[in-house]
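fyi for ur records
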Amino acid sequence: MAAPDYVPNDTAVADRHYVSPPRRPQPWLADRPAELTEGQPTGAGLGVPGPDQGYALRLARRFEGQLLLSPGEHADDAIAGCVGVALKRAAAFGRAPVTVDLEVAFRIFGFLSPAPDESLVAWRKELFAGVSHPHHYAEARHLVGLVPDAVLRMAPSEVEAACAADRSKLLTHQ
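which gave:
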């Protein structure tokens, strides 16, 4: 549609195409205040970074109907507590979380068969209470710290056998 005569029409602007910004002669440096210049920081409460960690929450929802919960326990608390353990296991192998990571985490704390004894259920009921609430991050991190790295590197069949024999050997403080 043609524009009226009184409307300015600069055809030079319409003929332009993309032009790269001018070249910068100096190299880019990580000199901003929040830049990580020496790699990922480590320490208490910083967790274990890994790729695509949010996917663990989706995978965990697949276990909701299989969880062995006693009266007073909630699936959301079990999932929130065990997802951190599963993420630590996945990051130890340098990959994104998979179903096996969650299976191992749920099995260690007795949320999957073999059924745990009453002492473990009483202990974990107190330990997992309210962990799904965002204000209980420190408690969730404590749960992750209860599982040694050597246990996280075990095969799922080894974890299942250890749970059937003596589950308490899979945790550092019980």
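The CA atoms of residues 10 and 16 lie 11 Å apart. thats all i got for now
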